[in-house]
Design a protein that fits this description.
Strand content: 15-25%
Strand order of the largest sheet: 1-2-7-6-3-5-4
Oligomer: single chain
Helix content: 25-40%
Distance between the termini: 80 Å
Amino acid sequence: MTATIDRTTADEHAPSPPARLSLTPGTAPGLLDGAWWPRSRDLSRELPALAERLDHSWGRITRVTVNPAFWPVIPRKVPVSGHTVHVGWFTNEQDPHKILLFSYTADRLDLLIIPPETDPAAAARLTSAATTPGSLLTASRLMEDERAADEATESRDREEEWESEGGWEPR
């Protein structure tokens, strides 16, 4: 008797959920055109949903570039319903928190990449900041500001906990 082990899972063949994407309203130029919050760090799995979402409203995505700092594997090509998206990367030239998307019909989109493990409240704040028309904040600056705000909140929470547990009291 022989046994066959199927190493594929049901999710590998299931369609990806819609991309969590928000674009800047209006035409005021800024450094970012919106924000993308992928569900994982797997570009092969995440890019099709993003490209499909943009193909109809913005034009067929042909190329994307990322900084490899937060992506463990960067495929050279990703199949997207009916066409292929070519993927490139730049280590020093591109902000690690940004993805650039290029299409035939429009120039390019610069999107903030919100890390998949980000808390939903923080993701909402980052999305709002990235989609502010005319904003001159870079993707890395938005991430630094969010990290600093998060650390300040944690510090304040620890101090309040210390005080509520009897902490230091003057004599």
